[in-house]
Design a protein that fits this description.
Layout: H1 5-24, H2 28-46, E1 54-63, E2 73-83, E3 95-106, E4 112-121, E5 125-140, E6 143-161, E7 166-177, E8 187-196
Antiparallel strand pairs: 1-2, 1-8, 2-3, 3-4, 4-5, 5-6, 6-7, 7-8
């Protein structure tokens, strides 16, 4: 069969369109690789997102007046490392729940450790309850001793993210020793500090 010139034209056009389509339509495996690469880049750019573990440094004040009618406010400095299972600020969610723990020290109570449930709201606001052990080192009458005391408490805070790894944190809370005094005593505090992931 003899082809006409118009037939050659249509064959050429179909061949051209087919080649353009192949060139601009990636294979399924390429598309999947592109999506995976994009997702990986987003994870790397946002930093670790599985939890909100961080080093924290706080300055604050605590009320140690106990049953005194007059408030006795003293300043304190605290350094701690907090392990938190919830996702950090910048991650879109309404609420997350998990168990967090904290190891720290300050210039009032020396080393301490505590653990308890944490509720994180919108990635920036947290509320938790905890139970822990604090270690005291006391010198008296030329002797030096150390003892441990259990305590329980609760706190709430707000996290302001200023970079991928830094944030400003505001925290209020209350702690109470267990079995140290006949009556329950409470030590409320307010603190402001920096957190580093």
């Amino acid at each position: 069969m003899k082809l006409k010139s118009t037939d050659y034209f249509f064959i050429a056009m179909l061949t051209f369109l087919h080649q353009v389509g192949v060139a601009h339509s990636p294979e399924p495996s390429q598309a999947e690789n592109t999506d995976s690469t994009t997702e990986l880049k987003q994870k790397v750019a946002s930093g670790p997102s599985d939890n909100d573990d961080r080093l924290r440094m706080f300055g604050g004040v605590v009320d140690v007046s106990l049953e005194s009618p007059n408030a006795i406010i003293i300043p304190f400095f605290n350094v701690n490392y907090r392990w938190s299972p919830v996702k950090p600020p910048g991650t879109k969610y309404v609420a997350r729940f998990g168990f967090s723990s904290e190891l720290g020290t300050n210039d009032i109570i020396m080393p301490y450790v505590k653990v308890g449930p944490e509720l994180r709201l919108w990635g920036t606001t947290y509320v938790d309850g905890h139970i822990g052990i604090a270690f005291f080192f006391i010198g008296f009458g030329g002797t030096f001793g150390a003892f441990a005391a259990a305590f329980w408490g609760a706190n709430a805070g707000y996290i302001l993210k200023i970079s991928r790894k830094k944030r400003v944190e505001f925290e209020v809370g209350i702690n109470s020793p267990i079995g140290v005094t006949e009556k329950s005593v409470f030590f409320p505090y307010v603190a402001l500090g920096l957190g580093f992931r």
